[in-house]
Design the sequence.
């Protein structure tokens, strides 16, 4: 315990307090000897980093509970790595920096449920660099992260329906077609239709001269 506290830059008394608050998992025991490892050190550094960012110990405990209840990255990527998306590895502190003040247990649980986030040991993995950057940009523009995640859930439902529509259409008429080669065509149709729909909505908002 003394060695772990020294490496983490805290006192043994603080370490015992974190253990009592169940912020730190119990050590592996061999007889009367308690063994701590790199995961305990990473957890302590995460606690320190989140405290420095203004999170309370109660909030950190809730975040830890949500984090530990999430699916691991192997489950989220069960169908294989995304073909066009780049996963991003983050520490909990880095995630807090992306969405300053918006990383709440509720938002973390929602992102885990959506499959945007997964766990890999002491790291968090975001499934898509593009979705991460867009989400952060929307939050910086003043959109609450909870609203971003809710919109993401609704977009997911429409995207699944569109993917099924294109897959069924192509398989029906081109049963031997290469879906990977036809994939850009489907994306182009969706992007064009979305662009025109945005044009119509923006035009409708303009005051009449």
Sequence:
């Amino acid at each position: 315990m003394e060695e772990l506290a020294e490496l983490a830059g805290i006192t043994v008394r603080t370490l015992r307090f974190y253990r009592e608050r169940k912020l730190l998992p119990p050590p592996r025991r061999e007889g009367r000897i308690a063994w701590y490892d790199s995961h305990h050190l990473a957890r302590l550094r995460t606690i320190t980093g989140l405290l420095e960012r203004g999170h309370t110990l109660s909030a950190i405990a809730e975040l830890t509970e949500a984090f530990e209840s999430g699916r691991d990255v192997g489950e989220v990527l069960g169908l294989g790595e995304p073909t066009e998306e780049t996963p991003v590895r983050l520490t909990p502190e880095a995630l807090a920096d992306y969405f300053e003040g918006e990383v709440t247990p509720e938002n973390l649980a929602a992102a885990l449920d959506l499959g945007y986030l997964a766990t890999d040991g002491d790291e968090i993995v975001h499934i898509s660099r593009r979705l991460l950057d867009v989400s952060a940009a929307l939050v910086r523009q003043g959109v609450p992260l909870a609203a971003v995640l809710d919109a993401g859930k609704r977009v997911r439902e429409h995207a699944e329906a569109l993917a099924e529509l294109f897959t069924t259409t192509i398989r029906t008429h081109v049963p031997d077609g290469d879906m990977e080669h036809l994939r850009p065509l489907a994306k182009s149709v969706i992007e064009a239709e979305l662009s025109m729909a945005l044009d119509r909505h923006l035009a409708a908002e303009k005051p009449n001269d």
Q: What stands out?
A: Residues 1-52 form a domain with the Multidrug-efflux Transporter Regulator; Chain: A; Domain 2 fold (CATH 1.10.1660.10). The mean pLDDT is 87. The chain is about 65% helix and 10% strand.
